[in-house]
Amino acid sequence: MNRQWVMAARPQGAVRESDFRMVESPVPELVEDGQYLVRTMYLSLAPVMRMYMLDGAGIEKPMEIGEVMRGRGVGRVVASRNPAFAVGDVVQAKLGWQDYARLDASPYWMAYRVAQRLVPFSTALGVLGVTGFTAYLGLTEIGRVQAGDTVLVSGAAGGVGSNCGFVARNLGARVVGIAGTDEKCALLASKLGYDAAINYRTDDVPAKLAEHCPQGVDVFFDNVGGAILDHALARINRYARVVICGRISEYLKSPDDAYRMRNWDMIGKRRARMEGFFIYDLEAHFARAEAQMAEWIAAGRMTYQEDVLEGLEQMPRALIRLYEGLNVGKQVVRVERGAR
Ligand SMILES: NC(=O)c1ccc[n+]([C@@H]2O[C@H](COP(=O)([O-])OP(=O)(O)OC[C@H]3O[C@@H](n4cnc5c(N)ncnc54)[C@H](OP(=O)(O)O)[C@@H]3O)[C@@H](O)[C@H]2O)c1
Asked: Is 164 in the pocket of ligand 1 (CB under 6 A)?
């Protein structure tokens, strides 16, 4: 049987387990040429999935009640009527929250074969997938990090942020991370390439920014928005680049409750540039990002952090964890027991 998580209700505020329902149906058969069947090994979690449930996040059409939850995964081809995908191939695609996905030649699935240069295959969803590309390309293409820069990263122990430390360090920058627990801060400095870390829940953030960024901030890579963005703007240097990757601290707020920024004027005063980006607009650079980070990992110049939950049944909980700050590194779920 094929277990599937479907959307049972649109989230009202925070995502809850009751917004999802598990259903079972027979494993799909291949009925047309071009189709192939993928057994899910790992599924990826990202904050944007809550927006898929609400309004499509401006990227896709909004999900329907009863629709299989959307999301990327990595899996193995177990049957194929598509010459581009042979049985045994490992693919990364929009598999959805289910044990088996029947795909076809449509570009909608964004399917590609995963090279076996690094195990586990979950890395195709993390450091060597779109999450890692967001860190690398956000810092290089949008942030234009240069050797000698001071780089500040919020959400530093999350999926994207946990890859930013080594990317910035390997580009010759000094890099400071902001995260929500002392354990995460210790990990940033000991394992994830950061020079220093700030706990935004317990530290005096402006004082710590002054201490750890004494020369000011040249690049701010922001995953969080709100008050943290405001504090960072207060310390930017002339010609700084402020990279707007995400703003998870604001996702659950109504427009009336949105944080009111006080330091916008710093953009003008410092002749700085603030730029948002959408990672799929940078698809032409994915292969370069993947090759560079794979090389760094092989050379011992980069490590990565994954937070792996076991079993498809964990998917709703895994998504909720992102909003509760419980994940450390890239949140994935191992769906196939024993998958590498
Ligand atoms: N622009 C793009 O194309 C693109 C692509 C991918 C992701 N994104 C965005 O990038 C950000 C990071 O994505 P991700 O997949 O790596 O997720 P993630 O960082 O793993 O998200 C979860 C983390 O966010 C932090 N967080 C949660 N609520 C918070 C709050 N109210 N204030 C401050 N921090 C909070 C928590 O860490 P703490 O313990 O530190 O609070 C939590 O562990 C998200 O905003 C996402 O939407 C953008």
From this structure: no
Q: What DSSP string runs through 247-262? A: -GGGTTS-GGGS---S
CA distances from 218 to 274, 306, 334 (A): 12, 28, 38
Q: What is the CA radius of gyration of the chain?
A: 20
Q: Which domains does the chain carry?
A: 2-123+305-334 (3.90.180.10), 130-281 (3.40.50.720)
| Nearest Cα residue to atom 8 of ligand 1 | 246
**pLDDT number for residue 316:** 98
For the CA of 329, the closest atom of ligand 1 is 20
Contact 132, 140 (CB under 8 A): no
Which ranges of 194-330 does DSSP label H, i.e. alpha helix? 205-212, 226-233, 265-269, 286-298, 315-324
pLDDT of residue 93: 97
Indicate the SS3 state at residue 44.
strand
Which ranges of the chain have pLDDT less than 70? 116-118
**Over the stretch 19-63, which tens digit does the pLDDT of each residue have?**
999 999 999 999 999 999 999 999 999 999 999 999 877 778 889
Gap between the Cα atoms of 263 and 293, Å rounded: 35
